[in-house]
Amino acid sequence: MSPVAFRLRIFLVVLCAVMLLGTVGFMFIENLSLADALYFSIVTVATVGYGDIHPATPVGKIFAIFLIITGVGTFLGVIANATEMMLNKREERTRLQKLNMVVGLFFSEIGTTLLAHFSQCDPALNTIRKKLIVAENWTEKDFSRVSQELRNYKYTVHRDEVKLEAFRAFLEEKADLLLRLLENPVLLEHESFTELLWAVFHLKEELLSRDNLGDLPNTDRAHLAADISRAYTLLVHQWLDYMKYLHHHYPYLFSLAMRTNPFDEKASPIVK
């Protein structure tokens, strides 16, 4: 629970307690009916003060002063915190939209291509391929179910099938974009995606630091395969989360992403 929501809950509890105390107090002190006592408590706390009902006894006037002092501040606290919560939610939606724009740029320029290459080197891909064919009629439960099932899958790449030169050339071409993405302050709020960027960036640095990728010992190829597997694992989960976001918020973007699904052997951008 956010601090604003917590404060709002406290103010609401206090306000209800003050209203209850005011209603019961005026019923006994001023001998008002339940409806009149509740009405007078509300107009007092809300500072409306129509004047049609007012304390007739000294004790009632003192009690009304107490109600004004305690109730008005509490009422304003509720209004202020409720307004702040609504503004925070609007700001959060804006930040989320900007964040997913960055995620979308990554998959458009880098992520989808990497997924296609990595998955081709996955010897057990067929065990999860069908699960990753996202359909238009998927629901929240479908995305959650597949996400849970994929957590038990061991993402590996066959080191002898990895085209290191092609990976290096591609990542070197996208080096500036990767760096700009890592520098984006919006990503500080998305730890899992930042972790993915670091994994891809680290893979690029590993590949660029070797002069000859065609003559590496098996131990080094195994090391690079592990780096690729790490990036591959993070890529799959982030891709599924991104597809879920597009499905709920941007159907036209989801349509293209679905038609260019890197796990779908029959994928085609052509609408048929």
Brief summary of the model shown:
Helix content is 70%, strand content 0%. The chain has 272 residues and is mostly helical. It folds into two domains: 3-89, Helix Hairpins; 95-259, no CATH class.
Report on this structure:
The chain is mainly alpha-helical and 272 residues long. It folds into two domains: 3-89, Helix Hairpins, CATH 1.10.287; 95-259, no CATH class. Helices cover 70% and strands 0% of the residues. It contains nine helices and no strands. It has helices at residues 3-29, 34-45, 58-120, 140-150, 164-173, 175-183, 191-208, 218-249, 251-259.
Number of domains: 2
Number of helices: 9
User: What oligomerization state is this entry in?
Assistant: single chain
- Describe the sheet with the most strands: none
Question: What is the H/E string?
Answer: HHHHHHHHH
The proportion of residues forming helix, as a percent range, comes to over 70%
Strand content: under 5%
Radius of gyration equals: 30 Å
- Low-pLDDT windows of residues: none
Q: Whole-Å distance between the termini? A: 47 Å
Mean pLDDT: 85
Overall 3D geometry? Answer: elongated
Backbone structural class: mainly alpha
Total beta strands: 0
